[in-house]
């Protein structure tokens, strides 16, 4: 009962919790979904990471959304004993320079007018993921003046850089950053300083792409490439075991049934197929509601249809799932 | 470090393999590969290497999968056994590889079969040789046996032989051949017991195997044929042009266009333009003035190309254009669509279909270029854009580049202009495109003024008359492009590369490869469809200048030769056909023609007819009168790939099978005779003793298996006095040859049974002969106690043939039939029933003549003249009798049981019993006593029964006073007599009154003339020289049609036959109705010179000597062929009988055959010389003089014969 209560905190009928004899429980951490320790990489991915580490080349990872591309960086950092990865999220407006630093032109302009005492251009330069990683590879005395406070004194160290969704960036960006990524050198135009990474503390660069767009060939050729295939059922089960701490009431049989159901859903002609991340979230819901997919009690079919909200990302998909469920009666 | 040399070589090959598969592997990747290998190589398995190396080479998910596949394939090449399965499992094996494997396996299998057959044949041969050697030297050491032992054959035989048969040979008798112990005996006994089954198996198994294999092959060939028939384009081998495609896009226009298309595009967002802002601020005297500038971005294009077919030249041109632009740094993604652009195909992703809406999601901000007419975008009825075209709104900059000449633009283009920028599909349009995009509001519909780029083509109907189209094409394309088209028609398929290559040939006009020309050519409907109809090709090639045609064909041959199809593929057929056809058409030499013809014989029809030239060629090829006519030959060629019922291989296999059957049969026969006698049976066991004499030929007939007995050499038998004795002297009798030795107790027991058999069956033609083996003196002593009533012979142990395989511990008895063939073997003591059954069976087979009491040469103490066993008559006999004097028929039923003979005449209503009055071999004399309904039957008759076979009797009734036969019948055992057909009424009405007077029987009522029987009778005697024949005829038919003729002949013949007396008419004047199988058989008769005896042939076969006075049959002898004439010698001591091809002389009274003459014709008349020393036999076909004393035969010429006849006739 507690799970049921915990699940339907919001009744939607205007009655506060207190009236229903409930109280808002503290947020219960839902397991370590993002815990890098729980990440499982397939043999191919493992080898690809090792090759990238060995050759000192950026690793480009593609795959369906939700197959753990982004979390790979955290996992690599975790396993290599490095701090959390430095992340750069590519945007459609990103330019090559943005990977390394940002220059606050407007702030500088403003201060030039109103605070003539602050003349140091350096104050208006913010180092971004790749720039930070290069700085961290340098000796502390050389890098500390430019590093943000929380990173000072760390170096020289290797670090993991995640350039997420590189394909979202404009077409020019990959080509523009080719040389910088390869040589790990950048110049801050505003101050004229050039930073070059210490080769022995070369950052580990991981790029992810949803393979929506083809990246330029020249760029691809300088990367170590790996496409994460969708995990098999066995791998999914292993991932679920590692990732989710399912309640004891959610038996192995129920899990197997849910996984089979999930596989079936993936076979449907959905616009966006649910991936591992969706599966984990869905399983957590199933666990909360104690739904046995293979052995639905009366009235639970509707509850199951509701849980599809986690899997389907569009109304059409949700309708399709619901339609697919009903004939199974 | 791994061993550098080998690994580098290995992965160099892998890289080459990858390149072959379409991977782009640069130097940097190769270096990285080497670094990686240097660090990890040698420590991991190929499977790990796969995932390790993949990230270096793959750049997309598809390439990753391709790499895995390529990797597996590559290493499968090096380790076919290790990785073959893995490669197969991942679907890595190409169809070609599978075909190779299958072929290799098939070859290997064929070799294995051949080897197995050889081993089998050699094994069988060795086994037979071993057998033969073993049998000639019986006591061979057992080590020899094992040396030649065929490994597979003996094991099952040993296992199936009951252990109790493996009784060791008695070691106590060293003088007798020791039976070789061990597997040979066991096989022998096994073969003996299962001979029939083995024989059947020996014949059936190979044949069955052959048939099954042929059936299997037939089915496989049918599958193969199915596959052959389903050849599809992927199996075709395209002609490839050396040196790559010529550079199409090299013009200034193209580079201009590319530059313009690359021009950066204004992005949606703005950057703060720092420098401009500073400058503006300074200008504003420190007042901050911000300046922004729009971000720019690289323009990206999505190109949709309309493609009508796989070989659409137009689509290919636009594709090449887009590729060329891509190579110039343009970001362009190409998709193809077939008619409806809502479904597009991505060639880079392996032809996957993509919906237009998905493209809209992916490539939203791109510039959209549609190469195509745009027909499908418009509603066919209203001509307005379809509803779904709203999807194009997501591409702000879009254009349709139509291949339609602007001169023909009209409603369609206007409608399209509502949605798109419509331009002609030329390079100039591309160049103008960007400006038009960037123009704020382009003119919605403006046909470009410059129209030369897309010349207006006539609207050619692709299916219209070819000849008419030729002129239109020549006019509109211009002479040069027309020649290009003609050149393209030479090869049966249209291919983009080839079409381009042909334009660059030396023999073609210069400068063909311009955009204008290309656009003219590729817009032709056939080039869009990718195929030219044969009719059109024919006309086009004829329109091609001859020098050009030669040049084109030479180029084709060269191109084909440079890129041969991989061997063992389906594509090879087509490739070779094309090559040979092109060669022959290029230079029409006999050699090429023969090559082509030879190839044609092996190609399926569908392939052979691809090239119209072959069709024409075959239609016009000269036919030699030696050849089959062409269509027939063509049919034969095409059906060679069909299902021939009998091929060379099948014939070879069939011959092999038959040889195997023959070999097995011979082997069995070689093994069998010795096999059965050496069963080493414990003599006391009755059960096994019974089991042993299983008849070798169970059907009882003289089957071929008995031939093995015949191979036994003549036994060197000796009489007890030491004279040689040949078994052939017993020919004609059934012989039981009993080998025995004094040392054997069973032999003594056997003797009593043989005595009994001899006693009972001797008279019927059985001869029992005992053969003493071992010590003769001892045997003679023992013989006193045994008291055999049959003759004894002896044989020296050294003379015992190995095949007989006698032992000393048991009697061995052979049954020999009247032909002298060894028919059965009995080992050990036999009970009487077993022996008797065989004896009876063999006696039943004896031809009736065999019962003739030839002088028995066996030195046996013959008891009283043996009578035939009346028990053999047991049973119920039935038949229909014919009474001669009144020509009536009545039924006979004879029931014989335990010496009682009950006779019924059912149709006459009377019956009684018979009393046996005498018997001779196969002849029984009875006296008849009618006990009921006496008035219906004549009492006081005598009956003679003559055995004609196991189930047939000849019944002859004679009334007592005269002793003349008045009626006869053939009786069959167990035949219930039916009412006589014709004489039923006769028997009921006149029968009684006719038979009653029949008691007197001398006055025979002559029947009314029956024309049919008269004719039959006349036909049978018309060639006779015997006056009796004619007398008999006249007696029977005094008023007959032929009576006058008969009298005249009779008179002629009677001139010298005073001594002769007409035979009793009833005996001779009868056409036998009951013997339909010998319709010409006649009854003949003769009286002895003293008149006391009469000789007759009551049934045409049996010579019966009758005492005229008593009517008793004195003697009779049955012949196998009909007797035509009988004659007593002048002294009355010899009876001569003439028949087919022979003349027989019998002693009178005993009817003993004293001489037998073989002549070359049918003797119908006989004359003795005066002194009886010579005999003339004459017939329609000749005459001979026979010497009675020395048996010589002297032919007489027909003329002489007459003279001689005349000379002899006056003799008394």
Mean pLDDT of chain B: 71
Spatial strand sequence of the major β-sheet of chain B: 17-18-19-20-21-22-23-24
Strand fraction of chain B? 15-25%
Helix content bin of chain A: 40-55%
Number of strands of chain B: 35
Adjacency order of strands in the biggest sheet of chain A:
2-5-8-1-9
SSE pattern of chain A, N- to C-terminal: HHEHEEHEHHEHEEEHEHHHHH
Gross geometry of chain B: elongated
The averaged pLDDT of chain A comes out at: 81
Could you describe the 3D structure shown?
- The complex is a heterodimer of chains A (329) and B (1212).
- By secondary structure, chain A is an alpha/beta fold.
- Chain A has 13 helices and nine strands.
- Chain A has helices spanning 2-7, 43-55, 69-80, 105-114, 129-136, 140-143, 172-183, 217-221, 233-243, 252-267, 276-289, 300-311, 315-325, and strands spanning 59-63, 86-89, 101-103, 125-127, 160-164, 185-188, 193-196, 204-209, 224-228.
- A five-stranded parallel β-sheet of chain A has the order 2-5-8-1-9, with helices on both faces. In chain A, strands 3-4 form a two-stranded antiparallel sheet. Chain A has a two-stranded antiparallel sheet with strand order 6-7.
- The longest helix of chain A has 16 residues, at 252-267.
- Chain B has 1212 residues and is an alpha+beta fold.
- In chain B, a hairpin with an 8-residue loop joins strand 21 and strand 22 (941-949).
- The termini of chain B are far apart.
- At the A-B interface, helix 2, strand 1, helix 4, helix 8 and strand 9 of A face helix 2, helix 3 and strand 1 of B.
